[in-house]
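Action item from last week, closing it out:
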Amino acid sequence: MAPPQSWRAPLAGIAACAALAAALFLAPDSARQMARERVFDALLALAASWRPAAPAPVPVVTVEIDAASLAAIGPWPWPRGRMAELIGAVARGGARAVAVDILFAGADARSPAEQARHLAASTGRADLAAWADSLEDGDRLLAAALAAHPVALGFALDPQGTEAPTAAPILASGPPMVLGLWRAGGAVAPAAELQDAASGLGALALPGDADGLVRRLPLLVAAAGQVQPGLAAEALRLGEAASAYRLDGAAGVLRIGGVAVRLPYDGMLRLLPGAAQDIPVLPAAALLRGGADVPGLRDAIVLIGGAAPELGGLRATRETPLLPSVRLHAAAVAQMLRGAAPLPPSDADTIAGLASLLCAAAAMAAALWLRPVRGAAALGLLLMLGLAAGVAAAARDVLLDVSLPLGFAATAFAATALVAAAETQLREARIRQRFGQHLSPQLVARIAASPGLLKLAGERREVTVLFTDVEGFTTLTRRAGAEALVAMLDGYFEGVTSLILAHGGMVDRLVGDAVHGFFNMPLDLPDHPARALDCAEAIVAWTEAWRATGLAAQHGFGRTRIGLETGPAIVGDVGSRTKLEYTAYGETVNAAARLETGNKDLDSSICVGPVAAARCKPGRLRPAGWLRPRGFDTVLTAFTPWPQGAAAEWRAAYLAAFALAGSDPARAAAQMQALADACPQDGVARNLARGITPPGSAALHSAPH
């Protein structure tokens, strides 16, 4: 494709990108964030097959209170004594740590001891209070189970509250790095007896995005002004037997025992797509009935939670609309054990901005410098490379928002290509308007596709000029009526110009009965003298056949005479602002015109100048005589094609007689007469027989003025 002809197309691309940037800037933050999250979803899903499938070094299992367990054991809520049995069964199965995704807020209202205490308080009877101490106490049973094993309980964030849960063991070093934590004024925590018995306490909260989907899980939160871990982090800490968290601000990681987790500014861990689907699940009823005989618990980090709707622990994710929250916590534990923590880079905005500029510039260059199909292919390749880069980065836990650079690339290409196409179409229409009647459709299409090949401002180039004329046309105009004359000229010009175009020539103009044609302009035409001669012979053959039929035969349309010469000419646009003509000027043009009129003296139909003749195949032309055209100081040797059907012996005799003109003109004329008698249709030999005069003679043929 030609280089851009104006600034409109690139300016359109720049304007479109500016409009896109303004639209993004004015869009609500939530809309931009959701768009980015969906891009990250897609990248992580595509990267799943690239990510090495490495199992967690420590098994992670969920024990779920599902509908079947409720049917077998009893409806929810279960007494806390039953939960103590479940925790005990998990511990006896060999679990290294347990985390419970259930909030035990307040005292166990279903416990007999708590019911007796409530009755004693409402009646004021001390004997009932003493009797309560001898009854089954669910909180006491649960606290005993918690104290016997490494178990983490959960708390809920309370935006309106002020109560603080038990302080977490967090050791921080280096610069602050989690200033954007999810914060709440307080927390709804388990009873103090349970908090004291538990080995850990973590946040149960699972925030949903604007579309309601859970994509991330808090590793750290802030409640009542202090930093607290999430339940998954606490489960991992107990599984690693770590006494405290180490928040390394210099490295940007949260160290939990031997596990280092990259921590973002908001303290959230983004979950990998489908991570929860790989977590082994055991029903709670199987443990309560089978105890330690249930396999899969040995040396595992076990999370207990609800899977039945009655427990209210179902969450919507990208993969499924209803997923137990306990599986999300378990997936986070397994993901941390594998060291997977997808995060955008710290300078993500800078990277996205620079990538957008580069991609937009590359797309605009493709739209400006490549043909539409190739440009679209280049854009497609750019988009695929950008997508591949985003997927490859996501496989390495680096989240790049490739939608921005790819969106800017597509926008820049579309706007630039649209305006460039419109300009190209307009330019092609102008070129077709300028040259449609002068050149063949193929040549016009070539110029339209590559307008840089055309030099309209002017240039000096070699051309072959072909001029035609109709013998006796003036007389014909008096003899034929107006309608007949116009009809004959229409048919004549249609045939002659079609032949010029078919041979690669350019129709310069129609003047009266004459046609002016140029070869090797406006573009290079290989072997243009021979092509022009082919065209001249085709014109003579066609016109002879055409004028023997129809109106031309009725009115005696004359034969066509053609002048042909090759040489340098000045070529370019000439005229006024309202009318420009692309034409040629120079001695070669004048010579062709004089050669055309020289046909009268030579009794020929095609008169070829010496330069064009020398550029044609040897033996194709014969010398026909000498001319001194008006305005020329030198004598030109004129050439013409051999008569059709002339034998080799006749041609040899003709050349011998012509060569004899310099030494014995009379003998040469006599030989030409014999040749004319042998070939009566050849007017050239007949004309030379009347008097063959070599150059320098006083009686020199001269083209009339």
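Closing note: The chain has 24 helices and 26 strands.
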